[in-house]
């Protein structure tokens, strides 16, 4: 749709104008295109809005916070042993984990 068919900026701008979409803000136009491509998946959520940007945000949020299926709900995490580090060792580990910090 639109951008996929017209990868160059100039051709896409021509397509947008030809289809009367040039009066829509680019971010809304982009979100509306996303919505059209993902309509079946978005229909499964209960929309509280018709704003395509908000629908996209709600959909992405639901994907990251969705409840696990029942067969996975009872999976327990393994117990992990912890160790205590002295200050110097902790600082060295922190430098390895976050090399830009410190």
Written account of the structure:
Helix content is 55%, strand content 0%. With 102 residues, it is mainly alpha-helical.
Largest sheet: none
> Helix and strand string, N-terminal first?
HHHHHH
Q: What percentage of residues falls in helices of 4 or more residues?
A: 40-55%
What is the radius of gyration computed over CA atoms, rounded to a whole number of angstroms? Answer: 23 Å
Report the mean per-residue pLDDT as an integer: 79
- Helical region count? 6
Number of strands: 0
Ends apart, CA distance between termini: 47 Å
Tell the overall outline: elongated
Poorly predicted tracts of residues: none
Strand content bin? under 5%
Structural class: mainly alpha
């Amino acid at each position: 749709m639109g951008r996929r068919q017209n990868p160059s900026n100039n051709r896409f701008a021509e397509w947008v104008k030809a289809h009367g979409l040039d009066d829509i803000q680019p971010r809304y136009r982009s979100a509306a295109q996303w919505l059209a491509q993902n309509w079946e998946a978005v229909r499964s959520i209960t929309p509280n809005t018709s704003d395509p940007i908000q629908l996209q945000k709600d959909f992405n949020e639901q994907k990251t916070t969705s409840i696990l299926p029942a067969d996975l709900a009872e999976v327990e995490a393994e117990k992990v042993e912890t160790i205590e580090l002295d200050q110097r060792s902790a600082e060295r580990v922190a430098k390895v984990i976050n090399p830009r910090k410190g």
